[in-house]
Amino acid sequence: MSSVKTPSRPTSETSPRESVADKLSGAAPRSAQTKQVRLKLVYIDFWSAVKFSFLIAAAVGVVIVVAVLLIWTVLSSTGVFEQITQLVQDISGNSALSVSNIVSFAQVMGFTLVIAALNVVVGTVLGAIACLLYNLSVRITGGILVGFTQ
Q: Exposed (0-12), middle (13-18) or buried (19+): which is 61, by Cβ within 10 Å?
């Protein structure tokens, strides 16, 4: 007999008390009692809220620009713009019309950058307004009760 230990066969050195079923059914060691703390949120720092809302709005602006770039690339590579140009030419009877002349990549990306910049400005302002409104409403409501565990 070999002395190789495999997970499926316990060796003769292990006692029947230490079987897998016994280990699994045994009581798990108890962790220390968790301490719960209840705190009231009664103030949000204005500049922290403005910085946080700016970062979130800037991240959303980057996502918008990348999404439009990817969508434009997919539509251009699959030939959707050529099919739309052909459809417009068939309907109008004018073979000089082209969708790519009306809506070019530079125009779409320029419009997207303007929208992303406006999103950053509006998102930052809305975050500041929300902070001010919360700080004013705390005077009436007393704040939000938040629970934490340690």
A: buried
Best CA proximity match to 100, nearest among 65, 75, 69, 66: 75
Each residue's pLDDT tens digit, 35-45: 889 989 899 99
pLDDT tens per residue across span 68-105: 999 999 998 998 888 988 888 888 888 777 888 788 89
Contacts of 103 (CB under 8 A, 6+ apart): none
Sole residue written with tokens 């307004």: 129
pLDDT average, residue stretch 109-135 = 97
CA pair distance 48, 54, nearest whole angstrom: 10
In b/e form, how buried is each residue of 87-110, taking b as 16+ CB within 10 angstroms? eeeeeeeeeeeebeeeeeeeeeee
Are 40 and 143 in contact by the 8 Å Cβ rule? The answer is yes
Mean pLDDT (the chain) is: 85
Nearest-angstrom CA–CA distance, 135 and 24: 52
CA–CA gap between residue 150 and residue 144 (Å, rounded): 19
Number of H helices, E strands in the chain: 5, 2
